[in-house]
């Protein structure tokens, strides 16, 4: 029960990391900063806010953007997320939408610019800022320019602009007018981006002084504006989700060791911390809600009821184990409240892979511990070697321990849950029960003894 209390104490503290979400209500206009480098952590933050906005039917999202660019893969994931959401998104370039920022902006419904601002120059570069080798650069530009052209066209922008942003080798024409010559990357000022060509803005719908004006121009209520900020846990959440298999492995192995050594405590605390970090990270990252935490805790309660109060009622343990597995699986599944669940291979891949790695790893770790560590002082209470200690004769020669036969009686020295130790015939013997839990000090009787396996029951 201490383990369960530790899990609950840590998990109940998680909502504080997402306190700003309580402000988002039905009809809210959610203003989200897109500042600094675009990264996986930025994606986690935007995804979390978008899911909250979907769940309460927010009126819209406005990206308050000032970024020099960032990771193209994170940019692609952000745009994919926006394209599937029923909540309309808009961009206010305040004051820079460079590189990845320009591509994210084209993934929103409308773009507005601050009076002094710029957008464009999205040529890919290496993480260090250096240019990518020519062949690799050509592949990257070919793929991403094709992808973002389709995004631009879907949202009503000139797809030719994507080539101008990303490709040095293409001349960009819009309506027969050369917008950008070959050999240069396209960057547009606010005035250039809002210029009308053939009755249509080149890129941005207008110039606005602030996000309140953008909300009004988009037909959204200014008095419903809610500004959110990253919680400060986004980067930590990113690492936790990446380390999910290791946390699951630690949780499973710790729970097993706690079961093998009831009352030991350390293994249970490690397991509780691993599971709390697992759910906490995925909660902050926007991958799961508290309902999965509740299902997990309820599953643990069912398992404890089986072992502590109703041994032999298999349905409780099986039901609890199933609830735990479901909670762990769907805590890693990336689904959105206002979108249908897509049970595709991509949707299921990460949860299946992480759980499989954790379970297979747990089998090997437990086998290793059981095989090589039972004689270490710390591990003696965790594993039973099923070999009886040898005694010494008067002259120091080792003699085999006395035999244990069915019908012999003794006393349980430790809690038998279901394994432990008992004193039988004057010797300490490693024993098992048939599934019952027997408290220390209880009289026991040997039911069967086959080789190293000694099964006991209550002596009634």
What is the CATH class designation of the largest domain? Alpha Beta
**Proportion of strand residues:** 15-25%
Count of helical regions: 14
Tell me which CATH architecture of the largest domain applies here. Alpha-Beta Complex
What does this 3D model show about the protein?
The protein is elongated and about 100 Å long. The chain is 42% helix and 20% strand. The chain folds into three domains: 25-227, 2-enoyl-CoA Hydratase, Chain A, domain 1, CATH 3.90.226.10; 234-372, no CATH class; 391-458, OB fold (Dihydrolipoamide Acetyltransferase, E2P). The longest helix has 28 residues, at 345-372. It is α/β, with parallel strands linked by helices. Strand 15 and strand 16 (419-424) form a beta hairpin. It is built from 14 helices and 19 strands. The strands form five sheets. Strands 1, 2, 3, 4, 5, 8, 11 and 12 form an eight-stranded mixed sheet that branches. A five-stranded mixed β-barrel has the order 15-16-17-19-18. Helix 1 runs parallel beside helix 11 (266-284), helix 1 runs antiparallel to helix 12 (290-308) and helix 2 (40-55) runs parallel beside helix 3. Residues 1-17 and 383-399 have low confidence and may be disordered.
Summarize the structure.
This protein is of the alpha/beta class and 460 residues long. Helices cover 42% and strands 20% of the residues. Strand 18 and strand 19 (453-458) form a beta hairpin.
List strands and helices in order, with pairings.
Elements: H1 2-12, E1 29-38, H2 40-55, E2 60-70, H3 72-84, E3 89-98, H4 100-105, E4 110-113, E5 118-120, H5 134-154, H6 160-166, E6 172-174, E7 177-180, E8 187-189, H7 190-193, E9 196-197, E10 200-201, E11 206-207, H8 211-217, E12 225-227, H9 234-242, H10 244-260, H11 266-284, H12 290-308, H13 314-331, H14 345-372, E13 391-392, E14 398-399, E15 409-412, E16 419-424, E17 427-433, E18 443-450, E19 453-458
Parallel strand pairs: 1-2, 1-12, 2-3, 3-4, 3-5, 4-11, 17-19
Antiparallel strand pairs: 5-8, 6-7, 9-10, 13-14, 15-16, 15-18, 16-17, 18-19
Helix pairs in contact: 1-11, 1-12, 2-3, 2-9, 5-6, 9-11, 10-11, 10-14, 12-13
């Amino acid at each position: 029960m201490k383990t369960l209390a530790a899990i609950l104490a840590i998990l109940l503290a998680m909502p504080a990391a997402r306190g700003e979400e309580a402000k988002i209500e039905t009809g809210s206009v959610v203003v989200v900063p897109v500042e600094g480098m675009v990264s996986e952590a930025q994606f986690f933050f935007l995804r979390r806010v978008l899911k909250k906005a979907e769940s309460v039917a927010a009126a819209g999202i406005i990206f308050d953007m000032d970024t020099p660019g960032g990771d193209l893969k994170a940019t692609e994931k952000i745009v994919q997320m926006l394209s599937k959401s029923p909540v309309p998104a808009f961009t206010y370039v305040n004051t820079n939408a460079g590189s990845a920022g320009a591509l994210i902006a084209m993934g929103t419904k409308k773009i507005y610019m601050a009076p002094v601002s710029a957008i464009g120059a999205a040529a890919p570069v290496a993480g260090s800022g250096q240019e990518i080798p020519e062949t690799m650069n050509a592949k990257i530009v070919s793929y991403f320019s094709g992808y973002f052209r389709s995004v631009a066209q879907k949202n009503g922008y000139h797809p030719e602009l994507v080539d101008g942003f990303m490709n040095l080798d293409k001349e960009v024409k819009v309506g027969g007018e050369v917008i950008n010559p070959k050999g240069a990357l396209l960057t547009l000022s606010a005035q250039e981006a809002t210029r009308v060509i053939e009755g249509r803005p080149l890129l941005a719908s207008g110039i606005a002084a602030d996000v309140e004006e953008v909300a009004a121009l988009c037909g959204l209520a200014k008095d419903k504006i809610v500004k959110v900020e990253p919680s400060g846990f986004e980067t930590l959440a990113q690492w936790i989700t990446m380390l999910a298999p290791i946390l699951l492995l630690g949780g499973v192995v710790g729970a097993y060791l706690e079961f093998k050594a009831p009352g030991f405590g350390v293994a249970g605390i490690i397991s509780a911390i691993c599971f709390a970090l697992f759910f906490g990270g995925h909660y902050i990252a926007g991958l799961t809600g508290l309902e999965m935490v509740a299902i997990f805790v309820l599953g643990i309660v069912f398992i404890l009821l089986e072992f502590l109060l109703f041994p032999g009622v298999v349905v409780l343990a099986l039901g609890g184990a199933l609830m735990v597995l479901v909670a762990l699986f769907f805590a890693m599944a990336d689904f959105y409240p206002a979108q249908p669940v897509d049970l595709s291979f991509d949707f299921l891949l990460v949860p299946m892979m992480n759980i499989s790695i954790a379970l297979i790893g747990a089998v090997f770790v437990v086998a290793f511990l059981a095989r090589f560590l039972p004689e270490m002082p710390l591990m003696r209470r965790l594993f039973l070697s099923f070999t009886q200690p040898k005694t010494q004769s008067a002259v120091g020669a080792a003699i085999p321990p006395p035999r244990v036969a069915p019908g012999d009686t003794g006393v349980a020295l430790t809690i038998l849950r279901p394994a432990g130790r008992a004193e039988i015939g004057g010797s300490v013997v490693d024993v098992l029960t048939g599934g019952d839990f027997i408290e220390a000090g209880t009289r026991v009787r040997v039911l069967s003894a086959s080789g190293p396996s000694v099964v006991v029951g209550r002596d009634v």
